[in-house]
């Protein structure tokens, strides 16, 4: 009946929030488009419908000030700060973003990844906390951002409920990958994901499809870096993954795999640092700087390992003062701190 009604119509049909009935929406839209030549459909969803003729238009987070931005209030505020000021002034009359609080609000919006719901939930806390105080409590953002509208859908009333909703829409391999890739700092490539995230419940051969699924669901963000595709995850999504990883009891094992992967990468770089591929390896290490730092931090804080010079070794040099002239060479060993 619907297809027959739309057959001669020239209109735009809007379907909002399709992700929880994705297959049904896909079949419906394909059927209607085949029946109505002048019909256009705008569907909002956390992943594509996956039908012929579909064109994707990703909706990015709101713009936020750059981390190294000037301390002065810009003439045109980024979108995230405009939303925060608008929502905060509704619950704290007279609130404005000015010179005295601009840096704190900017940092808060950056830490919230420019996500509109997270910013709204933070703004309604302004009668109780300042932006500076919220920054101090943001380590547990899911406990802080819980005061959503009573008239909103349950999954939009708290930040955790929203992310829970996304997590439940994932397959089991995708859930495992989401939790495990939370150990990465900054971005990472497919090889790192396969080496670090594969394990119990997620075979190496399943990582590729799980990455593809998380990109479709907007959990992972795809970036092109030269000829290599890398992936990153928003801090809010990463923090949720960390909590899921802790609940599964997998944190220690995945962190060890992360450490071992970047140790092996450093060893490869050491071999190639002065060869014909030195520029390639310099670029690779630059891209992996955040993860190398995270691996070192793990060694110094979790497993308490450090690299220290061993006792100097006496060797004989054939140059200089003669065959019996002693010189010292230094070896490096890794030991656990008691």
TrEMBL record:
This is ATPase. Residues 171-246 form the Winged helix-turn-helix domain. It comes from Kibdelosporangium banguiense. InterPro entries: HTH_77. Residues 309-338 are annotated as: Disordered. Pfam families: HTH_77. Residues 309-331 have a biased composition (Polar residues).
């Amino acid at each position: 009946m619907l297809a027959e009604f739309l057959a001669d119509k020239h209109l735009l049909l809007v379907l909002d929030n399709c992700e929880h009935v994705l297959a049904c929406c896909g079949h419906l839209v394909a059927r209607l488009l085949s029946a109505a030549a002048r019909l256009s459909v705008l569907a909002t969803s956390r992943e594509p419908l996956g039908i012929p003729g579909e064109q994707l238009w990703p909706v990015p987070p709101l713009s936020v000030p750059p981390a190294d931005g000037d301390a002065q209030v810009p003439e045109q505020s980024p979108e995230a700060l405009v939303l925060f000021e608008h929502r905060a002034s509704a619950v704290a009359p007279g609130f404005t973003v000015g010179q005295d609080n601009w840096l704190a609000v900017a940092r808060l919006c950056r830490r919230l990844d420019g996500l509109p719901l997270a910013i709204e939930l933070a703004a309604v806390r302004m009668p109780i906390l300042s932006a500076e105080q919220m920054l101090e409590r943001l380590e547990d953002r899911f406990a802080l951002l819980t005061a959503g509208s009573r008239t909103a859908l349950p999954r939009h009333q708290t930040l955790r409920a929203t992310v829970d909703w996304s997590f439940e829409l994932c397959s089991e391999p995708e859930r495992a990958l989401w939790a495990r890739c939370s150990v990465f700092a900054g971005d990472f490539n497919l090889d790192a994901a396969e080496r670090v995230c594969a394990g119990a419940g997620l075979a190496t051969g399943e990582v590729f499809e799980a990455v593809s699924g998380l990109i479709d669901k907007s959990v992972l963000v795809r970036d092109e870096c030269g000829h290599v595709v890398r992936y990153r995850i928003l801090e809010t999504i990463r923090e949720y993954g960390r909590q899921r990883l802790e609940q599964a009891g997998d944190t220690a094992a995945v962190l060890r795999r992360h450490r071992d992967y970047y140790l092996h990468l450093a060893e490869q770089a050491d071999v190639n640092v002065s060869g014909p591929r030195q520029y390639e390896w310099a670029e690779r290490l630059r891209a992996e700087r955040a993860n190398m730092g995270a691996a070192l931090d793990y060694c110094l804080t979790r497993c308490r390992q450090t690299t220290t010079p061993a006792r100097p070794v006496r060797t004989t040099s054939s140059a200089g003062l003669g065959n019996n002239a002693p010189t010292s060479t230094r070896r490096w060993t890794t030991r656990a701190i008691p």
